[in-house]
Amino acid sequence: MDANMAAAFAVYLVGTASPGPSNLAIMSVAMEQGRSRALSLAAGVVLGSVCWGMLAAMGFAELMRNGLAFAWALKLLGGFYLLWLAWQSARQAACAADAAKAGQGCAGLSHRQALLRGLLMHLGNPKAILVWLSLVSLAAPAAGGGGHGTRVVAGCALIAVCVFSAYALLFSAAAARRAYLRSRRWLHGALALAFAWAGARMLRGGV
């Protein structure tokens, strides 16, 4: 692995570890519903990222750039899905306030629902494939040959597993869950704002 491949992995690591809707969702589920469901959500996020990565490695990014109708449709679906997640988080914030008074908890996600939520969060972001295209192009001189894209995707997938699993494990610790119980209303409120901002930005901006 020379400098180009290392640079591609470094860029992906920084982007993956930086706070964003996926990281915040994993943190929230880890603190509220525990480690196993957070890991299911993380698995969905990784799977969605790998799907976009493989499409970029196979050259579908250029087709998507030229298919404006498809790109716009995907952008609208992704934006509205993020707004739906914002609404769900806002409901959770209200539920947390009511539950605190009644001494009850809010209904959580099943493992399947957590996996699908993570998958749809990433598949609903059409800009992800363009990021992947940049990573594949950046690492191309280092890898050489026709299979360089799959090697980039495999390396980044390993990074994603490590980063998102670390979020799930760290924020499902007992101390983090105690902190969540004290501030869950504000956490879900912040998550609702983050999803709403991301969804509005996707709907407003171009692909």
From TrEMBL:
**Where is the protein found, in the record's own terms?**
Cell membrane
Q: What kind of membrane protein is this, topologically? A: Multi-pass membrane protein
User: Which InterPro entries does this one have?
Assistant: LeuE-type
Cite the entry's keywords alphabetically: Cell membrane, Membrane, Transmembrane, Transmembrane helix
List membrane-spanning regions: 6-26, 38-61, 67-87, 152-174, 186-203
- The yes or no answer to whether the keyword Transmembrane is present is yes
Quote the PANTHER family the UniProt record gives. ARGININE EXPORTER PROTEIN ARGO, THREONINE EFFLUX PROTEIN
Query: What is this protein's name?
Result: LysE family translocator
